[in-house]
């Protein structure tokens, strides 16, 4: 499966997290780098987007050789890169109209540090009509206009995660274009985690790449993510790294 994401030198989020989470589901990641970042397990100090043409060449070399069964998108790095990714997905969909595309709309780090060169919400606009499953956390869902707005923009399924809420339980809520709704409840774990969204989105995309139905993919990916967080470890003070 094709994976568009940035490089996190701490190894806790971004493409490093995606590769391991995807492998844990039994799928293979084809990593396409969108941006280089300067960050640790807590803060982001700088982001340098990959040139759009280099991004295109990375992906096209893989598309020309390998059958793509799903696409997972993290940070595009820039609006220009998001536009290139949208064009590549449209190209893939000509031959595979039902190709699953999963978007983790990372608008900022947990501390609010910027992860895109341009306005992150506007940068995602060309991608939304192409998305099978979008997985925002609560604040991201609000910033993107809410679940109904996201579906109106073309996102088929919206899974809003509740990790940023309060209480003893985390409630993840799914809504589909057909009006279906469901929620999952997970015990809130102590501590804060680096790369939990990457982990969940990659696991869902990998399950879809393996041909599993959406409902099963959502069930199994969330269970996997919760287990990874429950076994998280520290590399330094601050956010913990999920044991993927």
Structural account:
With 244 residues, this protein is an alpha/beta fold. The protein has a nine-stranded mixed sheet, with helices on both faces. Helix content is 36%, strand content 20%. The chain contains eight helices and nine strands. Helix 1 packs across helix 7, helix 2 packs parallel to helix 3 and helix 7 runs antiparallel to helix 8. It is globular, with a radius of gyration of 16 Å.
Gist of the model:
The protein has 244 residues and is of the alpha/beta class.
Distance between termini?
Answer: 18 Å
| Overall pLDDT | 93
Poorly predicted residue ranges = none
Strand content: 15-25%
What order do the helices and strands follow? EHEEHEHEHEHHEEEHH
Number of helices: 8
Structural class: alpha/beta
Strand order of the largest sheet: 3-2-1-4-5-6-7-8-9
- Tally of extended strands? 9
- Give the helix proportion (percent range): 25-40%
Largest sheet: 9 strands, mixed
Shape: globular
Question: Radius of gyration over alpha carbons?
Answer: 16 Å
